[in-house]
Amino acid sequence: MGDNFKDMNETMIKKMRILVGLVLIVSCVCLAWAEIPSEPLEPSRDHRLSTRIINKFVTKLHYRKSELNDEKSAAIFDRYFDILDPNRSVFTATDIAYFEKYKTRLDDLLKDAKLDPAFEIFRLFQQRRKERSDYALGLLENDFDFNKKDDYVIDRTKGPWPKNKDELDALWQQRVKNDILNLRLDHKTSEEIKNKLSKRYKTVSRRFAQYNSEDIFQLFMNAYLHTLEPHTAYFSPRVSENFKIDMSLSLEGIGAVLKGEDEYTVVQKIIPGGPADLSGKISANDKITGVAQGQDGEMVEVIGWRLDDVVDLIRGPKGTVVKLHLENEKSGSSGKTILITRNKIKLESQAAHKELIDIPNTEHKIGVITIPTFYLDFEAYEKGDKDYRSTTRDVAQLMRELEKENVEGIVIDLRGNGGGSLSEAISLTGLFITSGPVVQVKETSGKLKLNNDPDNGIVYKGPLAILVNGYSASASEIFAGAIQDYKRGIIIGEPTFGKGTVQTIIDLNRYAILPGSKLGQLKITMAQFFRINGDSTQFRGVTPDINFPVASTTEEKGERAYDNALPWAAVKPAKFNSYNMDLTNLDLLIKKHKSRIAINPGFQFLTKQAENIEEARNKKTISLQETVRKLERERNEKEQLTQLNHFRSSRGLDPIIDLDDDEALEGEDKIIKSIMAREAAFILDDMIHLQKQNNAEKHLTQTTKF
Fold it and tell me: What whole-number distance in Å separates Cα of residue 38 and Cα of residue 305?
């Protein structure tokens, strides 16, 4: 999720609106009269209009100055093929050679908003993808020899394109053989394997066949924009709506999470408190086969539809009625029809929430507040709604509740928090400091702007720890970095992601001068974050005061994994007064932490998991010999089962005999996630205890002197 930096360059954006308008008046008059293509997979007038607007913004506002030239054209060409065929198993080298004619021309074509090559490439991709699915279906009739020594290359991202159709066929023979072998090792019968893989290959083929021109335009524009750096992107109108929902944590609909399964749209789960939940008429695993608008609307059969198309039919304004036809195992093929009145749904799973952790052998309690994302309901805020939803508001309330429960300290859990609203990261920091700067932002122009705590109050003055991991990014890193620089709290966990750039969301519809245009949004990098100590969070991230030894050992992770990420940089430190948190006992805290986790089954389990993930990530080939694969699988499953049961035993739970025992493993993920949170709470409690001890000793020394 990009960081919203809405007000940063309002003046510049207004100037751009005038500039874009002048350019488009001249360049798009012809487009207004152009014939709309009858073919479904052709660039539209809106796509060409969006391209011109995007080009102007990228040229004038992007933080990394870049121009469209032959070098950029070649990069776009390569990235587009990497997006379409990342494992190099659909196109042949001959196909790539045919399209080489566009490799150094895409820059000129983009400047003129000519998008036909992107659609031409995709049409061939769609054809080749169907050929591959059809070929895979035909291979299901073959008898494969699983006794001979053979290896399958599972990662071909850096490999050569297959020279011709024969090489491509050989790759797919291995791929299908691997798919069959996986199911054989799952003890599936030949008929079950054939049916399952037949459905899988047909579903993949059908989904690619359902791509529309908007999908293709988004793919190609992002191939272009991602050559600038990893976080500039184009959102189609549909994706833009989903982004708005993510940021506001609310939507209007029925309150059900849906998924695509074969040809069906299936209810994955019901959101508590939503219309579907309150109706009692719809359950998880129900298949939605028809949708109608209103009580008397015509039922539209949606079997075989794209998931997002079905979602669009079901979503709607609060107070309106949607009619659904459902099928499940109980109802059989006849199914049932239900009416549900749409309402506003709060997506509470992404909202901040709290829990209490009791410290063993003490009466101490530590509060933990988990923040999955930095959210702000922009629309409600701009309308002046007094009850608008935001991270800062929710966390402030949770901290007040925790203080009433007499917690000794609070841990803010930012693991997996990829960012969100920059203004929320700043205002959240303000809950823990009285006043002062929070982050420095260097704009496209080179100007350095200081963002301060928006108020002079402080909500929580007590002991504080921030828990982070390799997926804590952007706004999370701003908050964690500020807390560390102010010495207001201790940072615990793993080095963070390293995303230190600012993105602004630009609604392209604001710059459309042609009637009836329906454009998307541009997320554009316009600035770079710098901590108040002068260091950028970009590339390096935030280094914890106490590291957890469970992170992946690879260097290629986070921002460092991107081939075109902005480099680390530094600026002059800002002036600020730190809180001088006493970290003189840091070595002792680390020693106590290491002693504790050395005998902690939870950390032993996490460390082993990290090692397993690293081993799997580094594996490029696997054997297609059944005896070898069977031994490997049995060894891996035995090791994982031993590790998990050792962990379960430490919690007084019975061992399980099967890793697929969903009932026994229910809630296990939540418990595993709590391992680090509990250790962070123990570290914070250690710090509180040691500080109290130090203060008592200082007081004793002063008293003795008198």
Answer: 22
Query: Catalytic positions, please?
Result: 474, 485, 499
The number of helices, as runs of H, and strands, as runs of E, in the chain is 22, 21
Which pTM value belongs to this model? 0.84
Backbone angles phi, psi at 400, to 5 degrees: -60, -40
**Which of 201, 313, 210 is CA-nearest to residue 256?**
313
Cα 214 from Cα 240, distance rounded (Å): 12
Report whether 243 contacts 521 (CB < 8 A).
Answer: yes
- Read out DSSP for 517-564? ----EEEEEEEEEE-TTSB--TTT----SEE-TTS---S--GGGG-TT
**Using CA atoms, how far apart are residues 48 and 44, in angstroms rounded to an integer?**
7
Identify the residue whose tokens are 């996986």: 182
What 3-state class would DSSP assign to 186?
Answer: coil
* DSSP annotation string for 356-395: EEEPTTSS-EEEEEE-S-B-B-HHHHHTT-TT--BHHHHH
Q: Which H helix or E strand runs over 410? A: strand 409-413
Task: Set out the domains of the chain in order of their start, with CATH numbers.
Answer: 67-227 (no CATH), 250-346 (2.30.42.10), 349-515+526-583 (3.90.226.10), 584-706 (no CATH)
Read off the tokens for 231: 């976080």
Write down the residue that tokens 């100037």 correspond to: 15
Contact 207, 267 (CB under 8 A): no
Q: Which two tokens stand for residue 498?
A: 């390293």
H or E element in which residue 644 lies: helix 626-650
User: What beta strand segments (E) does 66-215 contain?
Assistant: 151-153
pLDDT along the chain (706 residues), means of 10: 45 45 33 38 95 96 93 98 96 98 98 97 96 96 94 93 97 96 93 93 88 95 97 92 65 80 83 82 88 92 85 89 84 74 79 95 95 89 88 97 97 94 96 97 95 94 96 96 97 96 93 88 96 97 94 69 94 94 90 95 89 85 96 92 89 84 72 92 96 72 37
